[in-house]
Amino acid sequence: MCFKSSPIFSYIAAKDVSAVLLKNTSVRLLLLALIWILPHSRIVACDPDMQRGELMRDSACRDSVIHALYTRHLKHPSDPVLISQLAKANTVFHRDSALSYWQLLFTLQPSCDSALYKQAEIYYSIDSFANAAQLLAQASQLRPDRLDYMKMQALADYRVHHVDDALGVCENILKLIPSDADALLLSGIILRDQHKDSLAIERFDRCLKDNPGNIAALIDRADEYVLQKKYTAALQDYSAARADLSDDADVLNNIGICHYQSGSYKTAIDFFRKAVLMNHLQAESYFNKGISYYHLGEADTASYYIRTARSLWDSCHTDSCHACYLDAVYYLGMCYKKTGELTAAREQFTLLQKEKYHIDLSSEILYIDCSHFISHNWYYIVILFALFIGLIIAIVKIIRKK
User: Fold this and answer.
1) What residue spans define the domains of the chain?
2) Are residues 278 and 249 in contact, defined by beta-carbon separation less than 8 angstroms?
3) How many whole angstroms separate alpha carbon 311 and alpha carbon 321?
4) Which of 45, 56, 175, 398 is deepest in the core (most CB within 10 A)?
């Protein structure tokens, strides 16, 4: 057992305390204090077995407390204080039991808004956002002045894609506190998702006006600038937020896009590489990394990353993924064309023509077909050309004789 004690504590707790010290009144008082302090001091286990033992003792202690509360609850089933204590004791490890007790408390006290809020917290923690939003709406009706209820309700509504409801709750918060950073930030995100770009920027600007160092607001505004293709402004916000140190793959990918658009392909590749490390299933970063290599003239490397992105998008059966998949097919065809793999390139372009891709590739297919014809029949072409030249020479000679 290793005690977290100061040197003076260790000295006094030693077995060879001298009689001289015991005669000292201040020392005797300190020893009396130690009799109370040491049993309550935190003991640090020196090995894993002792740590597990302490955890088991903590668990046993917690269970014994719950058992004692439950025994008292059986005798006083309508005691709101006992029910509340049981709910709190069960919240971390026995969520179903905690929910039952909070529901019982609300049944006994229909005006108890905290019982609704606690249920909502549990539902939110297990990703049951619809139930959380419903309970928070009830709690907010009972206590319309509780901003924490309203904020969690807005988040829960947003998580279940009830964006209009979430935006409405944010507006109610802003009526009470116009500068509330959380409401401004969430409403800005919702407006951005609804493609209301100018309104989204206005919310982010208001959020940053009172708190210029708000990292989340800086990053969200930068993301909006990327959507608006204002890449210089986006880089400024990302830089202010030190987003280059972020572990968010989407943010790193967006920073890479900004550098890509400015022509800094190598810097962009570094950020796309970081994004892939953070999320190896993010197809966008593989694709962006590939086309960066394509513009650097490294078609072989580019085709590798574009193929990876194509495979990821092909496994995602949505319209947006299919559109991205076709973009990957197009650039893969261009890579094959650059490396001289014309048969593979023609396969990609033919597929795009069948899918009615937004770029007409008939000229590319014709060019490949002509190249194939020439490469497979060059011998006959040379002979025909020679015969044609000979024929012209013969005709010229006949004309001169006449």
Assistant:
1) 1-44
2) yes
3) 11
4) 45
